[in-house]
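Lab notebook: predicted structure, single chain.

Context: the supervisor wants predicted structures on file for every construct in the current expression panel, including those that have not yet been purified. This is the next one on the list. No modifications to the sequence; it matches the entry in the shared construct table.
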Amino acid sequence: MPQRAGRHWFPGVFCVIRLIGIDVDGTLLDSRGHLPDDNRDAIVEAVAAGIHVALVTGRSYPFARPVAETLPESITLIVSSGAVERAMDGTVLGRRLLDRRIAETVLEATRPYRDHAALIFDRDDSNQIVFETMNWEHPGRKHYWLRNQHLIGQTIPLEDALVEDPIEVMFNGAATAMRTLTDSLRREARDFAVSLTEYVHRDFSLIDVTAPNATKGHALAWRAEQLGLGRDEVMAVGDNFNDLEMLEYAGTPVVMANAVEGLKRPGWLVTRHQDDAGLARAIRQFALGVS
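Prediction complete. Output recorded below exactly as produced.
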């Protein structure tokens, strides 16, 4: 157990923060995808104060690990929207995979969206992402393809790729179409969870269909339990709809100034923009008690 931790008042109650869950894109990173020095320094200060830090992201481990390269070795990486948790050295601390039969049912029910669909697996080399007919020339996907095509494979039909339980069924595309699909999936979500990440300025959205307990909120709660902590000792910082559940779980929820419309709630704390080291400000002000 940590011996020291940050202290502050929120709201009107004395709090001791011992765990911080931090979203990556839009929170830890600036709008260019870079890690500001001030954010890194604030995380180092939090760890030195005895606070456990977990990066909680929709990225898979191979895509999240390079972001954490300059961060303390003690942090953990909750990746794939809560489906997998690993230590910095790659050791698996927890896995919450989607039953392949459920994944097959989801694929069958969403066949009109097959051009938007892919399966994601917990693998460290090739075929981490498997698609059937996705157009990688789409502006929202092309840059990702150019950087990561060695990790992407194709299987026709996509169901044949389900030789093991995947992390998730993933969909991506235009914001309006993905909202429609999200609503449809949530009406049927008895054996799986659905989370939506929107980039309205790019007219591009991502949908993660995971196991019911493979969400950012469930994963952060599990990490707190492993550390013997209550939710009042947990702070979470995020900017998008897929952060909602972990923000609702945390005793101290903090929303970025650049957050999507509709994420901010009455009584929730708001920090500065991602391009103004808002995360560093949140850590120092709300966890470490530094004005």
